[in-house]
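Standup notes
- DV: blocked on the single-chain target, sequence here:
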Amino acid sequence: MKLKTLAELAGVGAFLIVVLQYMKVEPNAIDELPSLVQEAANKDVAELKLEIDEESYLKNGSIAYPMYKAAMAISYAPDKSDALEKAVTVAVKEKDYKLAILAATNITYSPDMNRSLSKIAGSAILDKDTVGYAIVAAEYISYSPEKTKVLQKITKVYEHLANGGDINDPKLFEKSGIDEYKEIFIFADSSAYIGLSSKEAKEFTEDWLATRSHKDFLLFKKVFIFADSSAYLGKNTEESLQFALSWIDKYSEQDFSVFREAFIFADSSAYLNFDEAEAIKFAFKKVSESKAANKSSKADAEKRAAS
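- DV (later): unblocked, structure below
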């Protein structure tokens, strides 16, 4: 597979954006797959439809495309990244993976970009007709352990299909205990994240698995990255660790979505332009208001059901 970076294609006219072309890029995602599956992977990528026609998008009622266009017009980087992530989510729901990849690769903060690309790959891999897009998404993941994890899933799919398996087999992507262990250990051990020593990462992983769930870890990871990012809360590693641990003990994933959006709005110079402490206070206030509103709505629903 030979890919041309999306950044090089930004100057193409508005009515026809060529998303991907082929030229040599090292390291190459297909080159990293086992030789047994490279031929099938190359064939699937070669068959992808790699053009975006804006006029067609406007005619077919795409929701993701205008979200992408609006996001690209935002100048403040955190707001732009947040808007592009939302465009990726909608594009994935629409199964428009080429647009999702285009949006994801314009996200400025690499952990957010990598998370979006992994989301794209995780969805595209579930259909034989779109698995090629999972390979393209993997090409742009900059964090090596995450890229390796996606490539391992892609390899598993091709090996499963080569052996006559069904891509819709629900057991195909079941996580084993070692998969969860590796995911937590790698995050704890990585200098890009918690940065513990191997011994400390091992202790952290084993303690987590003994006392918390994998679902808790996924939320913890998301909160830690947001707290640690200089583009967002800008806390040091220890502060980010404590913030994320405290979060999963007190709040939900929905609460975090409210907090994240409220903080970005409050922190932005284009909007409230609060300092960091004020923005955090504002975001927690919005979380409290959201929780109270949800509690009230639930109580009203129960009353209606009882009457």
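- Follow-up: The chain has a mean pLDDT of 84.
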